Amino acid sequence: MAFISILFVRAIMCPVGAIVDCWSESFLVPLIKETMPRDRFISIMQHLRFDDRDTRAERVKTDKFAAISDIWTRFNENCAKSFTPGEHMTIDEQLFPTKVRCPFTQYIATKPDKFGIKFWMATDLDTKYVCSASPYLGKDPSRQKGERLAENMVMKLMEPFLDDGRNVTTDNFFTSLSLSHRLLQRKTTLLGTVNKVRRELPQLAKDTAKREVFSTSVLLQCGVDVLDQMARMYSVRSATRRWPVAVFYNMLDLAPVNAYILYKACTGWTGKRRLFLRLLAQQLRCRFMQHKEILAQRQAAAAAVPGTVKTTQCQVQESCNRNRSRFTCATCKKFTCAKCRDDGHWVCKPCKV
């Protein structure tokens, strides 16, 4: 938790440059330095894993996302359980910018960052809350033959929110007549732009679709696109060569946005999101800092005992069998274990005599 809090503090206070600069004299962030030493942070980052490597080879045969799928699934479940979306929802794509080498890195020329990992997202239109999200991993063997990818993805993302009379807005990649029929059977309506080359669209509907493009585009821009801008404003993203870490960064960008929306809804708080992230970081590191303070108090108490040094073998060995000790006799300065010292003072038994 303290490690994650450092990522959030960096996002709001020192988002530019290498993350290790936060410990340097030129770009020092005191809150980060007092939380954790730089080398400890780097060690956690180097050993950061999200699954069992011993079983990954078997799981990756059926799941390309196996390296982080368990964490991502739990994140999705928590998002869906914690919030009830309103009447209107939107579905669109998000390209998380990264150039890590993985089988499903995408190139989209129309995006500001051309390379990245693509995610499909269903968001609440009014609050921009991420209700569900799914990565694009290429061809899905579980998809039925003849079913369009876009249609399959919409039904997958909307599954927890169907049968409640909602409306979902999509762009021309998703919108189709068959999708509208499937959603209507689940008491859900569809609003979206339609590609004019679709065979299922008659000429009259094509003319109408051209007039509806603007209003639908406005709704889409109010959904996933605005959410993407909110997430990037205070992003924990940093350079990495491991795609699971890149996905983890995206998760840490989206989770605080959802948490901020829930916090405002439950408490009526009107503060800025940057201040909320600061409070969130403090809460995440609170338990770690308390434990750190307890250890410091113990070390200070041990240092108050005369002659405390590193642990070594007892040099008296009158009542023990080579026990270990880090205390020395106050008289002869020999390392003395608890069995070989006087009960009242830290003096070895020979010196007491």
From TrEMBL:
NADP recorded as keyword = no
Q: Where is the signal peptide?
A: 1-18
Occurrences of domain PiggyBac transposable element-derived protein (ranges): 1-206
Keyword check for Signal = yes
Q: Keywords of this protein's UniProt record, alphabetized? A: Signal
Q: Which Pfam families has this protein been placed in?
A: DDE_Tnp_1_7
Q: Where are the transmembrane segments?
A: none
The name on file for this protein is PiggyBac transposable element-derived protein domain-containing protein
Q: Which organism is it from?
A: Oreochromis niloticus (Nile tilapia)
